[in-house]
Design a protein that fits this description.
The structure is a single chain. The protein has 329 residues and is an alpha+beta fold. It folds into two domains: 146 residues; 130 residues, Immunoglobulin-like (Sandwich). The chain contains two helices and nine strands. The strands form three sheets. A four-stranded antiparallel beta sheet has the order 6-3-8-9, covered by helices on one side. A three-stranded antiparallel beta sheet has the order 1-2-7, with no helix packed on it. A two-stranded antiparallel sheet has the order 4-5. A hairpin with a 2-residue loop joins strand 8 and strand 9. The radius of gyration is 77 Å and the shape is rod-shaped. The N and C termini lie far apart (172 Å). Keywords: Coiled coil, Membrane, Transmembrane, Transmembrane helix.
Length: 329
């Protein structure tokens, strides 16, 4: 086509020389030019048709686009309105959420406090349960002790009745023994006066003190624990002729005057009015008498003494000095 344009637009016109060869070339060129024009016409028609179709399609697309744009603008307006509404709702929800968040925080704080109180309550409950268990155990122990106490009380009631009877019997025996002791005391007083008359030493032993000792030097009043009995007395207003080196004798009898068999004794003769008086001395002491002195004498049994009343008599080598009594349980 460029070549054709080159030939058609050229200002130079070749010199025409008619011959048979040029005639064939001209025909050929004419047919070529005609074919080209035909192709151009076909293409023009094709492109024209296509152009009209594209214009129609473009118009339709433009119309559809305008409709779509209008529809989208309307939808956008609706969405914008909905968005504005949602913004307002969102602001309200934001405020409400902040309130709810604050309420949730307060609720969490209250939950923590409640949990702490619950833990403390559980601890207190455990402690209370433990105390209740202890109280139940104590209650059971007290009930057991109460039953035992009631049994003991019943036993004590019976024992009390028995003791009351025994006490009444003992009172009767005591009254009887008191009568006997009074009688024996009267007899001892008579014996004391008789000894004073029969074997007067010329001075007397007064203010007797009896001390019953155990092996560990502790005092006792029980007969079976008595290991040594110490008798102390005062000798006052001793006449000058009775002063100096003297022997003192201690004798012990039961309340009725019988000798005590568990005491080691020494038989001694004591001066008397008519004839010497034979005594069983449980102790003999060498004393340098003066006008006034306190004397201590003692005796120890070979075996346990029996409970009861005992008499103690004191003599010197000049005669009878005095007597007293004591009781062992």
């Amino acid at each position: 086509m460029a070549d054709w344009k080159k030939y058609s637009d050229s200002s130079e016109k070749p010199e025409y020389t008619p011959n048979s060869g040029d005639s064939g070339a001209s025909k050929k060129l004419a047919w070529t030019f005609a074919g080209i024009m035909f192709v151009v016409a076909v293409l023009a028609i094709y492109f024209g048709v296509r152009s009209n179709k594209y214009q129609t399609l473009s118009s339709e697309l433009s119309t559809e686009l305008d409709q779509t744009k209008t529809q989208m603008q309307d939808e956008l307006a609706v969405i914008q309105s909905a968005y504005d509404t949602q913004v307002v709702v969102n602001d309200d929800l934001t405020a409400e959420i902040e309130t709810k968040v604050q309420e949730v925080e307060e609720l969490q704080t209250r939950i923590k406090q409640a949990r702490s109180q619950l833990a403390s309550s559980k601890a207190n409950t455990s402690e209370i349960k433990a105390r209740l268990a202890q109280m139940e155990e104590l209650k059971a122990a007290l009930e057991t002790d109460l039953l035992a106490l009631q049994e003991t009380n019943d036993s004590l009631t019976e024992t009390n009745s028995t003791l009351t009877l025994a006490l009444d019997e003992s009172k009767m025996k005591v009254e009887q023994m008191s009568t006997e002791i009074a009688s024996l005391n009267q007899q001892n007083e008579k014996l004391d006066r008789r000894l004073t008359l029969l074997a007067p030493a010329g001075f007397k032993a007064d203010n007797f003190r009896i001390q019953v000792e155990r092996r560990n030097d502790k005092l006792t009043s029980r007969a079976r624990r008595a290991d040594e009995i110490v008798v102390r007395f005062d000798l006052d207003n001793v006449p000058p002729e009775k002063q100096g080196a003297r022997e003192l004798y201690l004798t012990v009898t039961t309340l009725d005057g019988n000798p005590v068999k568990v005491l080691p004794v020494e038989q001694i003769s004591v001066p008397a009015a008519n004839e010497p008086l034979q005594i069983s001395a449980a102790d003999v002491e060498q004393i340098d008498l003066s006008s006034t002195q306190t004397v201590a004498m003692s005796f120890s049994p070979n075996k346990d003494l029996e409970a009861g009343e005992y008499n103690v008599f004191v003599y010197s080598d000049a005669g009878y000095l005095g007597a007293t009594g004591f009781r062992l349980r």
